[in-house]
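Hi there, hope your week has been kind to you so far. Thanks so much in advance, here it is.
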Amino acid sequence: MKLTILGTGNAMVTECFNTCFAFSGEGRHFLVDAGGGNYILKALKNAAIPVEEIHDIFITHEHIDHLLGLIWLIRLAGQKMNQNKYQGELRVYCHSDLITTIMTIVDLTIQKKVAKHIGERIRLIPMENGDTREILDCPVTFFDIGSTKAKQFGFTMILPGGQKLACCGDEPYNECEFSYVKGSDWLMHEAFCLFGEAEQFKPYEKHHSTVKEACQLAEEMAIPNLILYHTEDKNILRRKELYTKEGRTYYHGNLYVPDDLDAFDF
């Protein structure tokens, strides 16, 4: 199993792509979020992930930096289906309220000869809190993160070697997630900025956290591996260095601050 971080930035970045990533194994891929536009096609190309090999996509919530790239993927997959270049079906998982939003955008922007596959070979699959699906031969459990900003789901995944990975979406960990996140070997958590830059970037009023809080959480929960993402990009050339330095003060596990296209092997 390989995890490729396609994008690491928050909604307004210009020096990297919006946060999204893909799990890959044996020529199949599971995409989590899709960024805010058609750069998702470039990101996938850079990562050598053909759209024809993506059969599972999870969209965490409705914000444009996570959702709009999906519309381009639906368009491209539908076109390839019309050309007999896409085998099988494309499954899109999301919380039930999000399906109406996706369909509204599709109806307004995608030609009917492409959109006709929705409901047949392109399936929008509603998830409820605690639902589990088998994706890439791994159990994936979806859960409501308890957001008060916009309904959002995270997930846990049992990796091929038995390790557990948890993703809390793009908001700080909420106690309602404890039963899902506890015992994880890997935690993927947002870190909008350095704690020392909180006054500048104002993460708390945006329902985000800093490197400090994310690292304190992983330390308290004894999670051995922490991946930080969904960051600002104003000093991206030193982001890895600076975030790692601050994080080491609060967390003693394996801390990762990836750049776009960095990958992890499990």
In short: Residues 2 and 24 are 5 Å apart (CA to CA). The first strand starts at residue 2 and ends at 7. The radius of gyration is 18 Å.
